[in-house]
Design goal:
The protein is of the alpha+beta class. Strands 1-2-3-4 form a four-stranded antiparallel beta sheet. A hairpin with a 5-residue loop joins strand 1 and strand 2. The longest helix has 21 residues. It starts with 7 loop residues before the first strand and ends with a helix. 15% of the residues are buried.
Length: 73
């Protein structure tokens, strides 16, 4: 899902990244609400590989967001 598009790469932790012009945006697809993506973290692209600490931060941010959405219901 999602990797058919240019500049989108699948990463660890069920994350994807998109890299438009020097920026990395880490995101997940929301499997409960099909076709919705949740951006977890955006940073300037400074290295060739996605740093694990940024991926882990993105996962934490997404998990916190999902928890807050569920608490609002």
């Amino acid at each position: 899902m999602g990797t058919a598009y240019k500049n989108i790469n699948q990463l660890e932790y069920d994350l994807y990244e998109i890299k438009p012009k020097g920026v990395r945006a880490y995101f997940k697809y929301d499997t409960e609400r099909k076709r919705i993506i949740i951006i977890g973290f955006i940073t300037l692209k400074k290295t060739q590989e996605a740093p694990k600490r940024y991926m882990k931060q993105a996962v934490r941010n997404i998990d916190n967001y999902k928890r807050s959405i569920n608490n609002d219901k």
